[in-house]
């Protein structure tokens, strides 16, 4: 029988930490085929604890051995998901608050008002001509690994350059363009594609890449659909589809410029 009288503050903290980790893992796997395995593991773990509490020693010992061996197998099989989970934890507010004490924040200083206007004008023209585009704005999470997958440019942001990169016959049009520190750092970059099952079938590979990239980082991704010409903005794994250039400009300025003003007021 459980001794509830000995339940203290340490037990509360233990449960809260476990709940946070479980919730973040659930958010990562939600909508994917791996969610079924996730719930199977949770059920087996709860069953093991209940059997142990009921003093069914033989069954609980066997189940405990199965779980211990299964954990090692899961680490091998789900190595990509575990990496995503750790990256997701690294992008939580608590981790950012802690790490922000040791390095200067630069995310809100990646683009200015004029550069946002140039990107929006390019997206408007590409939307009218139904030219597919995938534009990534780096914030606090470094995208050096993603930049390394493409062609490094390190060029000034301009409407003409963005349109030329995504022109259908351009060798750089297939992939993402990365904007960092007021520069177009690279083009034809490869983004991680989300395997979530709850994504609308109307959304193509560019949209899935945008969702995948913003789940693993705090980047902001703008997508122009090649099929419909619709503009979308993706942040924190959530995508807003079919926005106008005016709304896109407002959203980008809210994300970058308003945040920048907020940081200045704290100084």
Can you give me a brief rundown of this structure?
The protein has 267 residues and is of the alpha+beta class. It has 10 helices and 7 strands.
What does this molecule look like?
The protein has 267 residues and is α+β, with helices and mostly antiparallel strands. It has 2 domains: 4-90, no CATH class; 107-266, YojJ-like (1. The chain is built from 10 helices and 7 strands. The protein has helices spanning 9-29, 34-53, 57-77, 79-90, 93-99, 113-128, 144-148, 159-165, 205-216, 245-266, and strands spanning 133-137, 151-156, 176-180, 183-189, 220-224, 231-235, 238-243. Strands 2-4-3-1-5-6-7 form a 7-stranded mixed β-sheet, with helices on both faces. Helix 6 packs across helix 8 (159-165) and helix 6 runs antiparallel to helix 10. The longest helix is centred in the C-terminal third of the chain and has 22 residues, at 245-266. It is elongated. The relative contact order is 0.11. Residues 262-267 have low confidence and may be disordered.
Question: Which features does this protein show?
Answer:
267 residues, alpha+beta, YojJ-like (1, 10 helices, elongated, disordered C terminus
Q: What share of the residues lie within helices?
A: 40-55%
CATH H-level superfamily title of the largest domain: DNA integrity scanning protein, DisA, N-terminal domain
The helix/strand series, from N terminus to C terminus, equals HHHHHHEHEHEEHEEEH
> How many β-strand stretches?
7
Spans of at least 5 consecutive residues with low confidence:
262-267
Average pLDDT: 81
Strand order of the largest sheet: 2-4-3-1-5-6-7
């Amino acid at each position: 029988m459980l001794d509830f009288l000995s339940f203290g503050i340490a037990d509360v903290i233990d449960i809260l930490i476990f709940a946070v980790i479980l919730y973040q893992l659930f958010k990562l796997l939600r909508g994917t085929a791996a969610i079924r395995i996730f719930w199977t593991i949770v059920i087996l773990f709860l069953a093991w604890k209940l059997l142990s509490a009921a003093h069914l020693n033989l069954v609980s010992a066997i189940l405990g051995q199965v779980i211990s061996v299964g954990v090692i197998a899961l680490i091998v099989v789900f190595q990509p998901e575990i990496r995503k989970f750790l990256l997701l934890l690294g992008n939580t507010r608590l981790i950012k608050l802690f790490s922000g004490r040791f390095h200067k924040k630069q995310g809100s200083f990646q683009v200015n008002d004029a550069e946002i206007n140039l990107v929006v004008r390019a997206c408007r023209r590409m939307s009218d001509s139904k030219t597919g585009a995938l534009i990534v704005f780096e914030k606090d999470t470094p995208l050096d690994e993603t930049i390394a997958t493409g062609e490094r440019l390190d060029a000034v942001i301009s409407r003409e350059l963005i349109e030329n990169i995504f022109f259908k016959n351009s060798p750089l049009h297939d992939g993402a363009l990365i904007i960092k520190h007021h520069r177009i750092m690279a083009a034809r970059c490869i983004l991680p594609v989300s395997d979530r099952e709850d994504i609308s079938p109307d959304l193509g590979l560019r949209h899935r890449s945008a969702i995948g990239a913003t789940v693993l980082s705090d980047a902001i991704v703008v997508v122009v659909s090649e099929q419909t010409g619709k503009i979308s903005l993706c942040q924190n794994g959530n995508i807003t589809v079919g926005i106008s250039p005016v709304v896109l400009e407002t959203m980008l300025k809210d994300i970058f410029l308003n945040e920048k003003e907020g940081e200045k007021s704290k100084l």
